[in-house]
Amino acid sequence: VILEKVTSNEMASTLVSLMQKAFNKIEDIYENIPTVQEPKQLNATHLDQKENQEPSLTKKTILIVDDDVHIVDYLQEILKSYGTHGTTTVKKAFEVIRAQACDVIITDIHMPDMDGFEFIRRIRSIDPRIPIIIITGFSNDQNKNEALKIGADGFLEKPFKRDDINAAIEQCLK
């Protein structure tokens, strides 16, 4: 086997190039994360969501954010008396928040595109009045304390009961 000699300068140049590509990718990701701005009108067909269409002047809107599509679908089904938006990404959640007011946000903690705690912090910087309920399969005192510290209004462990999620929403809407 013949190995090609690589000089230190070539190796450093390759590493710098790879690091620059990684930095650019991270920068692209963060550029797509919304900052605090005025809401924009979006075409709902661009959103990864389902929407319950029952018209009502007093219907409250609930945004559901969970990387598990089955949880999103389940919550939309049991909360169909509300107007719901469901998404599996934080990026889409910010699009929904910009497109319309949400009366309650239900979110998971562990999601691939952004930690749920960071998501809550960003929501709080946009509108500190939106009630937020955390649902998680990773319930422990540390997560619960962190959730309360950053301003979550409810904390439910998966699997949760229909009555528990309804009670948490009703509490938030009071």
Provide an overview of this structure.
Strands 2-1-3-4-5 form a 5-stranded parallel sheet, with helices on both faces. 44% of the residues lie in helices and 14% in strands. It is an alpha/beta fold. It contains 6 helices and 5 strands; from the N terminus they run αβαβαβαβαβα. The radius of gyration is 20 Å and the shape is elongated.
How would you sum up this structure in a few lines?
The protein has helices at residues 8-31, 69-78, 90-99, 116-126, 141-149, 162-173, and strands at residues 61-65, 83-87, 104-108, 132-136, 154-157. With 174 residues, it is α/β, with parallel strands linked by helices.
> Uncertain spans, ≥5 residues at pLDDT below 50?
34-57
- Main sheet: which strands, in order across? 2-1-3-4-5
Rg from Cα: 20 Å
Count of extended strands: 5
Number of H/I helices: 6
Strand percentage lies at 5-15%
Question: Main β-sheet, in a few words?
Answer: 5 strands, parallel
Could you say which structural class the secondary elements and strand pairing correspond to?
A: alpha/beta
Order of helices and strands: HEHEHEHEHEH
Overall geometry comes to elongated
Helix content: 40-55%
* Overall pLDDT metric: 79
Name some characteristics of this structure:
174 residues; 5-stranded parallel beta sheet; alpha/beta
Q: Which helices and strands occur, and which strands form pairs?
A:
Elements: H1 8-31, E1 61-65, H2 69-78, E2 83-87, H3 90-99, E3 104-108, H4 116-126, E4 132-136, H5 141-149, E5 154-157, H6 162-173
Parallel strand pairs: 1-2, 1-3, 3-4, 4-5
